[in-house]
Design goal:
Layout (H helix, E strand, L loop, with lengths): L1 H12 L2 H15 L6 H8 L3 H4 L6 H13 L12 H18 L2 H8 L5 H16 L4 H27 L4 H9 L7 H6 L1 H4 L4 H19 L2
Helix pairs in contact: 2-3, 6-8, 6-9, 6-13, 8-9, 9-13
C-alpha cells in the first residue's frame, strides 16, 4: 500500500524537466536506441502513462534531447563576421557537434527538432542570408541546402567509419574498370574514394556558400 502512495507522490511531483533529465541520464547509459517509455517510467518511478502528462510523444522527448545537444553549437557574436563567415562557422559547428554525438544524427535526420537552441541557430543563418539579400522562399531553400548537405555528409562519414568495406577492396574494383570507359574515375583513383574527410566537407560547404554569394549579387 505504501508503494502505491509513493508512486502516486512521485507522479504528482514529476515535471517535464524531470522527465527530460531522466531521459538524458538513460541515454548516457544505454544510448538513444535503448530509450523506451517503459524504461523511462521505471527510472522516474511512475507508471508509463504518467509520462504523457509531460511529453506528447516519444518524438517530442527525442526532439528535446536533440535540442539539448544543439545548445552546444558555436554561434558567432552578432556583427563580428561577414555573412559568408557566419554560415561557415555555424555549419562547421553543426558538423563537428553531430560527429561528437552520433546518436542524435538519426533523430535530426528523421524528425524536426523544434527547440530554442535549434531555432537560435536557424535565426543566425537566416539573418546572415538576409544580409546577403537572400530572403523569403530563397532563404528557406538556402537553409535547407546547407543543412541537408551538412547532415548528409556527417551520415556518410559515420557510415564510412564503421563500414567493413575496406579501401583496398574498393580501390581494387576501381582499378579493374576499363580506362577508356572510366577515364575520369581512373585519373582520380583513391582520391575519389576518400571524399568523406573533414577537408572535403569544408570544400563542399565553401562551394555552396560561393554559389549563394553569386546568386545574391545577381
Amino acid at each position: 500500500m505504501s508503494r502505491g502512495r509513493d508512486v502516486g507522490s512521485k507522479a504528482r511531483s514529476l515535471t517535464r524537466e524531470d522527465v527530460i533529465e531522466a531521459a538524458a541520464e538513460l541515454v548516457a547509459e544505454v544510448g538513444f536506441a535503448g530509450l523506451g517509455m517503459r524504461a523511462l517510467a521505471e527510472r522516474c518511478g511512475v507508471a508509463t502513462m504518467t509520462l504523457y502528462r509531460h511529453v506528447d510523444t516519444k518524438e517530442d522527448l527525442l526532439s528535446e534531447l536533440a535540442d539539448r545537444v544543439l545548445a552546444q553549437l558555436t554561434l558567432p557574436a552578432p556583427g563580428t563576421l561577414s555573412w559568408q563567415e557566419e554560415l561557415t562557422t555555424v555549419f562547421r559547428s553543426v558538423h563537428d557537434l553531430l560527429l561528437e554525438h552520433p546518436d542524435i544524427v538519426e533523430i535530426v535526420a528523421r524528425q524536426p527538432v523544434a527547440g530554442e537552441a535549434a531555432y537560435r541557430g536557424a535565426e543566425v543563418v537566416l539573418d546572415a542570408l538576409r544580409r546577403a539579400g537572400i530572403e523569403g522562399e530563397a532563404a528557406a531553400s538556402a537553409f535547407a541546402t546547407l543543412y541537408t548537405f551538412t547532415l548528409g555528409f556527417v551520415q556518410q562519414q559515420l557510415s564510412m567509419s564503421v563500414s567493413g568495406d575496406s579501401l583496398d577492396r574498393r580501390k581494387g574494383l576501381l582499378d579493374r574498370l576499363p580506362v577508356d570507359d572510366f577515364d575520369n574515375l581512373s585519373r582520380l583513383g583513391a582520391v575519389f574514394l576518400l571524399r568523406h574527410s573533414d577537408r572535403h566537407f569544408d570544400d563542399g560547404l565553401d562551394t555552396i556558400i560561393r554559389g549563394l554569394a553569386s546568386k545574391a549579387t545577381q
